Records
---
Amino acid sequence: MNRNTPPGGVTGEPAPSKAVSLADFQQLIRDMYFRKDTERGVDGTFMWFMEEVGELAAALRNGTHEEKSGEFADVLAWLTTIANVAEVDLSEAIHKKYGSGCPGCGQFVCTCPDAGKP
């Protein structure tokens, strides 16, 4: 994706309906919001993230499928924003932590005891 071209190719045009990689999503969020996000900083951004987590919790209890879907997207976007401000590559972080299986037991189908994490 070109840094100056939105996903749909033309400003205001919606993105095509297709799967988006985590790396592409992180770049999209960076391109859209990085200036505002860095001015707000990690602490301010984290507070917005927590607000979105609360909205997701409410949607999970009483929301429609569409509301739940929107809140999941918001939580992921704000988490990605925090990663951008903190200079964390999410694709790299996920690969490092989960790319070889469960961090607890090392298996791709977790065999950790149910009582503990994960």
---
Amino acid sequence: MRLKAGTILAVDRGYNDYVWFGQLTLDGIFFVTRMKTNTVYTTVEVRAVPEKDNVLSDQIISVPSLRKHSETPVLFRRIEYWNADKEEILVFFTNLLHLAASTAAAIYKDRWQIELFFKALKQTAKVKSFLGTNANAVKTQIWTALIALLILSTCR
């Protein structure tokens, strides 16, 4: 799948691949994911965080294992965020260096809305798999399922 420069991905932590993240960064594609606890990194810069915010820490980091894959060091961001709903600290890994740390956290949080949408699509509309793999085929199947859901919900 080809992604356009400027695209922002909200990636599940299970798909952490630092070489891929480095390539995305070099291609101008942005991402936000949860950082694995065993990630080896070097802190390049510590950024100031707002006082009355859920952002606990904001760092610019590099991942030493990527040095062999790229001559230029690829910089990322490590954000510690307090999730008041679950009363836990979430650590995000992103290449969104130009946005506020709270915005990067919000992008990842909104990923759950997408998860819930696809869960509802699978359960209610009985969409178990997509008939095609290109963007047009997927969009057509989703729109068809949504229209069917709207018709069914107005008939009840």
---
Amino acid sequence: MVYTFHTDPGHGWLEVPTSQLVDLGIEHNISTYSYVQNETAYLEEDCDAGVFVDAYKKKHGSQPEYAEKYSEHTFIRNLSPFRST
């Protein structure tokens, strides 16, 4: 799977299905600096994306692949903050 790394002029977020956060057992480690929409989390680049990458590498033995997607005005900033359930 290739993940999307969304960026705008000031920040970046890694797009990850919330089911994968649960599968990796890290859903409670994600901060409210990340965002969520439906079943997709947008993990804040400075902290939460690293939590995901570390857990992914531990489980799969390799770093996840991602493709960058730049937007001058990303929709992500208008989403609800991530809150684990």
---
Amino acid sequence: MKKVLWISGRLPTPLFSGDALYSAGILKALAMTGEITLSVVGTRRSDQAIDGGILGLPGITCVDVPPSQPSGLRSLLSSLPRDAYNLGTHELELALARLLKQDWDWIVVDHAYSAGLLPIVLRSQKDASICYIAHNAEGKIRPEIASSISNPLRRTIMGLDAEKYRKLEQKILKVADAVICITDADESYFRQFAKKTYVVPPIFLGATAPARVIDPNYPRAVLLLGSFEWVAKQQNLELIIDALLPSFKQNGISLNVVGTVPQTIRDRHADQSPHLIFHGRVADISGLLLSSRGGLVPDLLGGGFKLKVMDYAFERLPIFGLRMALAGTTPEEQSAMFLADSIEELAKIIVENIDNFDRLNRNPAKLLELFSERFGLERGLDRVRQIFLRAD
């Protein structure tokens, strides 16, 4: 039985964000091998109780510490990026140090924001191999995001933080015995710096929706799922609204936004109803899925695989998106979507196809078939077994 210590700056619970969902999929696959015991240590994302759906699985033990507190400007004086500085709390360091007294086969550093704890790991590594789970090519994407910010002061601060992320990423890549990433594009980037790289696509944890037929009874609406706490996601949302809403208003189409959106953005667009509706975080989105003719993947910033793509596909919802936002999907999968090369073109494609019921039903049926093969739990289990249970 292999012993794995999993270090997660933010524990993957609740499953409302892409990083939590990706980590949870790998954790579940590892637990299902029956050949691995996992100890997961990290900070809670909130004061809510830990969801046992993943962290309570047989073979998984969770050691959680209280949520981190924002540091204000103190992180600017640190060599660590803000997230890593905030998450590397004294309580987490103590919990990790206690766990490192044991012998481990693998030590997993889940996300770059957990890599601030790397010095503690290296001091007590012993014979353990180190695996870095990269949710993004931070050294590539964060400078791009920083440079896109219009406010000069904010752009400078984010640029400094992006450079700290790049340096921290380089440190973990240098010592990692295995790097797990989500897309072939990220793998190509990491291959320049890492010993061994592996592509593990996201593992879908939900259930496949029953068959349905989209017809004129469905509202002329599209759905945007997201987590909008990160400044890049907020800027994306603003760009999307500004680009799509004029056309939507003219053609009687509504945009349903699900996820936590800052009140400042909600207030700025308060007069757009009923063409723009902010629903906040929703525990059960089934009603909104059944009230939409498509799901949006229009991200201009942020990089990486968009987990909402899987939500839409397994819910049999047609996908309208930007080609550049569909990293990690194949040309065949993209052929079963409604894609554009610009946000302006995307608005036009939505208007042209919102009443095309033949394609609105044919595309998701084909996409579900393709996704079931590539993102199912069994395939994910095979991939993680090859990494963590391989014969060295």
